[in-house]
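Ticket opened by: R.M.
Priority: normal
Category: complex prediction / small molecule

The reporter submitted a protein together with magnesium ion and asked that the result be attached to this ticket for the collaborator who will pick it up next week. Submitted input follows.
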Amino acid sequence: MKIAVILGIIYIAGINLAGFFSMGMDKQRARRGEFRISERTLFAIACLGGSVGSMIGMQVFRHKTKHKQFVYGMPVIFLIEAAVFLYLLLHHMQTKTTRTDFGMGTVLTEVIYGADGETVADGIHQLLLELENEQLSWRSDVSFVGTLNRNLAEGIPTPANETQRKWLSDSLTLCENTDGAFDITLRPLIALWGIEEDAPSVPTEEDIAQTLTKCGYENVEISTDGMVSAPEYAAMDLGAVGKGIAADEVREFLDTQDVSGAVISIGGTVLVYGSKPAGGAWQVGIRDPHGGQDAVLGVLTLREDTVVSTSGDYERYFIQDGVRYHHILDPDTGYPAQSGLSSVTVVCQDGLLSDGLSTACFVLGYPDSLPLLEKYHAEAIFVTQESDVFVTEGLESVFTLENPAYEWRKGAYDETK
Ligand code: AMP
Ligand code: MG
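Result attached by the on-call engineer:
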């Protein structure tokens, strides 16, 4: 808490105690016929913020006075003070802090409405660094995923705590529900393409076919006592759900902070938290997948707590022999997914699912994603390579297409296109 707030609380408590006891002292002096505290002093204490204490003191010590200054003045001062206090409190709650940091291999943008946004932003930054280094990074030797993959290679089961188990089981259920279009055991294939490394290149068909035999979410087992095991050739990659997990963790953190609302953007995943001052709606810009970094496709207007995740072929790619290869792989072919989409944005309460679904839908394409989205009560915006935009029903009234280069296709989907 800011020092000014602490000093303010001490002052208000002190002046109200002064108001309370000054009434008591004055009453005692009156009884003893001693020299009274002047009415001007009593009134000044109330004016300086002690009106509540003074009024309680008047009742408790039966400090009766017919003086109009007290009979009418005190309640008026109290009302004025209450209004000022409320104004300061609301102002304090709505102080806006905007920060940009780097974490989880991407840019973090934080907009926070709350008492001490800078401290909260520091906390979020720290939380995400820890999440990356201690839990999700496959690069780290000490992270949960790093340890898991090392142990798998040595045939040793790895203990997972309750949170880690939930990450894995929610992801594995998504793998099942997509018939493997989404697969968290694709690490060997991702490594073969080297898209996250310095010199990516197109592998040979034989290498792809051989590597695909090492992938398969069905091979992962989580025992009832939380031990994770899989064949020694398997390796996991939670890259497709990492930012969503981060959004969930940030939401839990914000629940413990003095924050009335926030929009936390972690790369392509945006957490919309709490309410905007004066009950306004949050605006979340959706990137134009065919434009530059700051180009906008449209805007989502959201009021409720939610997570908006976008998967796009522009995020990470390399070009070889004039062909562009992106980072979302189709486990069926072993090549970058070619579902005709440029990006998919999924809106869903749960961060992990929002992030996972956006990757899954990118692989599945439109309209094969629709039953999956229904199953998870999630909504989505699909952008095709031909600049067509499809929006699920739940988002139709909250999405505004701003970019004239795109056409919002409403109604039946033409599969022949
Ligand atoms: P996202 O940006 O959330 O769509 O996640 C893409 C990342 O997920 C990639 O960089 C890979 O690490 C991983 N990935 C790629 N293809 C798949 C897939 N089919 N299923 C699960 N994870 C994938
Ligand atoms: Mg994803």
